[in-house]
Amino acid sequence: MGKKKQREEILASVKREKIRLIRYLYCDPAGVIRGKTVTASQLPSKITEGVGLTRAQHAVNLFEDLIPIEGMEPVGEVRIVPDMDTFGILPWVDRTASFYCDLTEQDGSEWGGCTRSVLKRAIAKLDALGLEMYSAFESEFYLATMGADGPIPWQNGPVYSSSGMDRASAPMHDMVDHLESQGIVVEQAINEYGPGQQEIAIRYSDALNSADNHLKFRDTIRGTAEVQHGLLASLAPKPFADGIGSGAHVHFSIWNKEKLNLFYNENEPTKLSSFGESFVAGILDHLPALIALSCPSTLSYQRLKPHSWAGNTISWGYDNRECSVRVASPFKGREMQSINLELKASDGSSNPYLSLAGIILAGMDGVERGLKAPQPSAHDPNLMSDEEKIACGIRPLPSNQLEALDNLEKDAVLREGLGELMMRAILLTRRAEAAKAADLGEDWARLATFSTF
Questions:
Q1: Is the pLDDT of residue 1 over 80?
Q2: What is the pLDDT of residue 156?
Q3: Which of 85, 111, 137 is the last residue in one of the domains?
Q4: Exposure check for the chain: N or C terminus, fewer CB within 10 A?
């Protein structure tokens, strides 16, 4: 469809559905979904020219502190420009629609502070090789009410139990309905291990669309819980100090233009191809830095503990849920289509554009260098002998946010892929977060960000 016709159809839909407000949304380096709102009367011009935004907005960190960053001062503006492919009507609020947007310079050229553009550049590198990524986020989250001393988990039931499904059925049914009304295919919706913890898995799509879909998912879960059910929803990695953490596991595979999954090994359909193993090797090589993008917040590292199925080591294995990278077993009859990798060291505080870009850059570096993956881990890496750990290349992941950021700063491949301005923004804002969390304490940070994601 041409852009002109697409624009006309969007304007017609806004008029037909009596839409009053249209949100221009983006995800900042802190992983927060932000934006501005345009009224329907202004949409005919704003759909093409965008909306003004101060450069300094991207210097606001997770704790809402404005951090001095050269190139992100409160002088000058960029434009929030909508991607018309992302237009959708929001089902949990009245007369409201949204776009997901790029941030550009005023002349329409790329701005180095746009996280969506970072992913688009990584995708372009794949495209130049005749490749594309398909991916999806599998997200855990908590439902809660607010008590006198903070959030309290809402409802409970044994994990994967019918009783737990019944007790959370009202908000979960609405969440699934709302996701599907926005064109997102929901594959699973279950109650998880923690009291009040749920999980919804959505179907994979191309990398850019899957990142946009994950942001739509986050907004839909939070909005449905708050607006329609009077509940809090938290996709934070460790919303309760003594509770089970929540992940946003990334599933992904690389395909060629002939629609062949390059992770597929036709000689051993349940095992990775040599391309896939090199991709794994690249991720493992860069994981000490990549984790600063996939598990970026202070509380991310409270989730990455042994025996938590979160992936607290640099490791990989076949259907090994204690490894940071899991090879998900394919389904009989569609092995080529379904074999994929899962990054378990990933949580809901991440910016999906930056995470997916980092995965592409790290994995393809392994392919281009012809790296060989170590022996896969057949057991929990935390219970293996020293000899077994050496054979499988198992090493500890960074134990805190600052260590991961130091690794990111030193990683030439990720540094180049992120770009100079984005790298500085991430390092400065995140290090300021770490300092504030250290000063005010983890409990303060946990409450301050409980429903940010």
A1: no
A2: 86
A3: 111
A4: N
Distance of CA 57 to the CA centre of its chain: 20
What is the average per-residue pLDDT within 49-72? 96
49 and 185, same domain (yes or no): no
Residue-wise pLDDT for 262-286, tens only, equals: 999 999 999 999 999 999 999 999 9
Structure tokens at 343: 């990054």
Q: Are 134 and 255 in contact (CB under 8 A)?
A: yes
CA dihedral 109, 111, 112, 116 (to 10 degrees): -100
Same domain, 361 and 415: yes
State the average pLDDT over residues 71-91: 96
Separation between Cα atoms, residue 55 and residue 69, nearest integer Å? 10
* Nearest partner of 70 among 427, 433, 450, judged by Cα: 427
User: What is the token pair recorded at 247?
Assistant: 């992940």
- The boundaries of the domain holding residue 297 are 121-440
102 shares its domain with 162: no
Same domain membership, residue 127 and residue 15? no
Q: 329: domain CATH number?
A: 3.30.590.10
Q: What share of the chain is helix, strand, coil (3-state, %, to 5)?
A: 40, 25, 35
- CB-side exposure of 33: number of CA atoms within 13 Å? 25
442 Cβ contact list (under 8 Å, min separation 6): 241, 298, 299, 302
Write out pLDDT tens, residues 382-440: 999 999 999 999 999 999 999 999 999 999 999 999 999 999 999 999 999 999 999 99
- 75 and 140 inside one domain: no
Instruction: Output the pLDDT for position 160.
Output: 85
Tell whether 447 is covered by a domain. no
Q: What is the largest CA-CA distance in the chain?
A: 68
- Of 185, 218, 227, nearest to 204 by C-alpha is 185
Does the pLDDT at position 168 exceed 80? yes
Please state the φ and ψ torsions of residue 285, each to the nearest 5 degrees. Answer: -65, -40
Bridge partner residues of 127 (DSSP):
none
